[in-house]
Amino acid sequence: MQFLSTDISLILEKLSIIVVVVLALLGIALYTTFAERKVAGIMQDRYGPNRAGPFGLLQPLADGIKLFFKEELIPLASNRMLFILGPFIAMFTALITGAVVPWGSQLEIFDRTVSLTIAKPDIGILYVFAVVSIGVFGMMIGGWASNNKFSLLAAIRGASQVISYELAMGLSIIALLLVTGTMNLGEIVTQQMAGGLGGFLGWNVFAQPLGFLIFLVCVFAECNRTPFDLPEAESELNMGYHQEYSSLKLGFFLFSEYINMIVSSAVMATLFFGGYDIPFVDEASLSAAWGNNIVAILGILMLLTKIVFFLFLFMWVRWTIPRFRYDQLMDLGWRKMIPLALANMLITGVITLWLNR
């Protein structure tokens, strides 16, 4: 009976963390749309949304209600089941990617130590790559099931783009694994926290600066963000792979993009910027003085700060750099990023062997 009680407690604990993470991702994604429009307004010397609620803060809620009550349209010539399945796959895969991200250290609640990571597999990085690879099926299925030639062309573009840049991203991660020696995201954060200046000098971005730049560019391409937003090129493809969608199914596609941005930012912060590590601070000493819970909450806030920085970078690039032509996109992926990633991997391997001889 004691084992059964322990198992039930663990299940309830994990379910609680899952609910909190999912609601947090949805809430942040909701207001990321608002932040993007505000950043665009500032960069274009205009106000941005400022009507719904004080300072326009209720604009995301107004947009969500509008999408919810819009008429649901399904083209007669479409494959109805797959048409509905496409946005569901896109949204589901975007949400489950965050299952292996360490959102913080540990909280002590009612004499129980609660880990702030939903799952801790030893192949956490492989899990992230696997789920991201599945996510492209939502785009492909949605574009094909619409029975619209522009949607299909956009979906093919998107799939080709993801496949092309996943190769360079994988090679940049192999170089990082040569440095860390583990694929467990929690262990990667712990290793970085052992560096000097409160972990700051141990961040992997200093050991793998080129690997980080390659990973960053590939993340832009994986998330279909400008200048890699070819699957949504309005001037060429009317609207892209989701042009036949409306109401909540369109909202799922749009929201999944923002959730992918948030989770990608969290993964970049975890792999290269210490995750929830607080720079210039010794967490052990601070924990002894203030308590574990205070330090854990500060770590969560630090990770959120790093995520917000990357989200701002996504927005800044979108309103600064024009969209590539498709041939330029493919040329960059195959003839620039992959050779660079291979060279970075080989150089990292040689240095690692020399240091460990």
Rounded to an integer in angstroms, the radius of gyration calculated over CA atoms is 21 Å
Strand order of the largest sheet: 1-2
Biggest sheet features: 2 strands, antiparallel
Order of helices and strands: HHHEEHHHHHHHHHH
Number of helices: 13
| Helix-strand category | mainly alpha
Total count of domains: 1
Q: Can you describe this structure?
A:
- The N and C termini lie far apart (53 Å).
- A hairpin with a 2-residue loop joins strand 1 and strand 2 (112-115).
- The model has no long low-confidence stretch (mean pLDDT 87).
- It is built from 13 helices and 2 strands; from the N terminus they run H-H-H-E-E-H-H-H-H-H-H-H-H-H-H.
- It is mainly α and 357 residues long.
- The protein is globular and about 60 Å long.
- The chain is 69% helix and 2% strand.
- The longest helix has 42 residues, at 2-43.
- It has helices spanning 2-43, 59-69, 80-96, 124-145, 149-180, 185-193, 204-207, 209-222, 234-237, 247-272, 283-290, 292-318, 326-355; strands spanning 106-109, 112-115.
- It has one domain.
Ordered list of secondary-structure elements with their pairings:
Blueprint: H1 2-43, H2 59-69, H3 80-96, E1 106-109, E2 112-115, H4 124-145, H5 149-180, H6 185-193, H7 204-207, H8 209-222, H9 234-237, H10 247-272, H11 283-290, H12 292-318, H13 326-355
Antiparallel strand pairs: 1-2
Helix pairs in contact: 1-2, 1-10, 1-12, 2-10, 3-4, 3-10, 4-5, 5-8, 5-13, 8-10, 8-13, 10-12, 11-12
Which key terms come to mind for this protein?
single chain; 357 residues; mainly alpha; globular
What is this entry, summarized?
The chain has 357 residues and is an all-alpha fold. The protein has helices spanning 2-43, 59-69, 80-96, 124-145, 149-180, 185-193, 204-207, 209-222, 234-237, 247-272, 283-290, 292-318, 326-355; strands at residues 106-109, 112-115. It contains 13 helices and two strands.
